[in-house]
Amino acid sequence: MIQSHRSPCPIACSLDLIGDRWTLLVIRDMMFFGKQRFEEFLESPEGISSNILANRLKSLEEIGLVEKEPYSKHPRRMNYQLTERGKSLRPVLKVMSAWGLKHISDTEIPEFTQGE
Fold this sequence. Notes:
Low-confidence stretches: none
């Protein structure tokens, strides 16, 4: 998939890939909550719709942040996992989380986070 860029600015280019309303939340769910299956992502409290989730997972796969593999004999049942490129977003998410905790009232880190 060839990406066109609005400008050569690395912030603008990063936002072109992961700056929509849902993408980082899907990555968050994989990274910190261990979610791998479509149904698990739908259970997130933000309430992503199934068509948007399917679109985001496909986009994440196309840009090399996520890979999928079947988890049963049914060809449509997939596990989604972050690639090394996807995992490299960990510091970005941690800084965003710290910023939100500091500057946005009534935010908290859920107790069920995984990994560090």
